Amino acid sequence: MATMVDVARRAGVSIATVSHVLNNTRPVLPGTRQAVLDAIDELGYTPNTLARSLVTSRTRSIGLAVSAISNPYFTEILQGVEAGALEHGYGLLLADPHDDPEHERKVVQLLHERRVDGMIIAPSATPDALLRHLGQHGVPTVFLDRLVDPPAGSGFRHDQVCAESTGPMASLVAHLAERGHRRIGLVAGLPGLSTTAERITGYRHGLAHAGLPYDERLVAHGHSRTETAEEATHRLLSLGAPPGALVTANNAMTIGVLRALRERGLSVPDDIALCCFDDFSWADLFTPRLTVIAQPSKELGATAVRLLLERLASPHLESRTVRLPSAFVHRTSCGCPESAVHPETPGTPRKGPES
Predict the structure, then answer these.
(1) How do the residues of the chain divide into helix, strand and coil, expressed in percent and rounded to 5?
(2) pTM for this structure?
């Protein structure tokens, strides 16, 4: 088995230079760096990660705690995190908190015990125990998708990255109002999440922009899950004056809404119009095609990795929050004919109305 000494001999450099190339601990001339990389490739050298971690106190691993199994939105984010981590020579340890605060604390503690260098976490609606653990141990952390406020005076520095929610949600509601809808229902997410609060705010902004009153009976919480969104939709449709249009606040709930509409024999958009927050790979395959807000999922994941690596390099950075633009993707579930669909593409932001 090839050793670092063998690599140094083949490349004609010192062992220290090989170490700097492997660990990115000091700039190395491009030609020298390439010679080392060529030697590593020719000899099939594999670094001893465990031994290196004992010397550097780094494992070159990132803990990722997201509900990747129960929420398909996070699957694409996971792809962005993985690509960003691998690009910089980091591995991933993945845990699913199931959006449960107690389980969340346990899995994050397990990740910490495995000496990950830092963590990327999509926090639950009540992350108090999580924040205490991270703050007490000074774990370098990036919160993903959902924003949190650490306890006042804790001194816990962290970073956050999320997509814009308020303006994009307002644009969906305003678009439905432009189509003539006056009773627009919202299937909202899990109470307590920043995304839920922001999308409800956007819903209200869209109504206000259209001169429509806010009616709390037209808001039902689907708790960010398919089954509960299906139940929430049935409640909205059972009102004495049911909505003529619906907006869903994430892709998992969109599936539940579509199930409920099918069970009631309602056709989209002939009987009821539908707009959704979150695009997904088959949204363009439905009949009608779904009008959605597309979030930059993979970019969110890659940005989370970048922020974490910057914090690992400079632990005393002030806390940062990065917001990425979402895009209005105009299709036909809103009731617009194909001929009227705007040729906007995912990644093209559409500014929502202000309150």
Answers:
(1) 45, 15, 40
(2) 0.81
